[in-house]
Design goal:
179 residues, mainly alpha, globular
Length: 179
């Protein structure tokens, strides 16, 4: 599965790429995007508290993504100038990025994308992310492959967003100079 780094960078890149203004006066967009992008993995908390393994459960579904996005958009709609529907769409897109990354990860039992309709796990037949081998321990050399892949992914993604924003800015400058 991708690490919190890959999820966080993906959420941040989506928010920056869409060039969304502040979501809230108190919460910077980058921080909001990172929180939403990793929120699905907060399902590890029951394991810490009660020893119940719920990771990659219902929080890794589109049904939960929709409910989560509705709740956050309603909470933030009174504190921002952005319309609730835009906050909902942004939140849903960023949260769904987590599901997409986990769907394309090698190994694991998949994720219940269609919960609550079905608990059937889904995973891609063509993985894009290498799996993590937690059983080997934290400092095993096998993790070099995983870390190298994630660092490369991070650099490419942030570079792509930077190029995209530069392109959009130049295009806006040309449009405004023609007027």
């Amino acid at each position: 599965m991708p690490s919190p780094l890959a999820h966080a960078v993906s959420g941040y890149a989506i928010a920056k790429g869409l060039d969304v203004p502040k979501v809230s006066k108190l919460l910077p967009l980058g921080l909001y995007a990172v929180f939403v992008a990793i929120a699905a993995d907060f399902d590890f908390l029951p394991k810490i508290v009660a020893g119940i393994n719920t990771h990659r459960g219902f929080t890794h579904s589109f049904g939960f993504a929709i409910v989560f996005s509705i709740i956050l958009s309603q909470l933030l709609s009174s504190r921002t100038a952005i319309k609730p529907l835009k906050v909902f769409a942004l939140t849903l897109i960023i949260y769904s990025s987590h599901l997409v990354l986990d769907f394309f990860t090698q190994g694991g039992s998949g994720i219940p994308l269609l919960w609550p309709i079905s608990n059937a796990p889904f995973h891609s037949a063509i993985p894009l992310f290498p799996g993590v081998h937690h059983s080997h321990g934290l400092f095993n050399p096998i993790h070099v492959i995983f870390l190298s892949f994630e660092l490369t992914y991070t650099v490419i993604l942030l570079w792509g967003v930077s190029r995209w924003r530069s392109f959009r800015y130049q295009r806006q400058q040309k449009t405004s100079s023609l007027e």
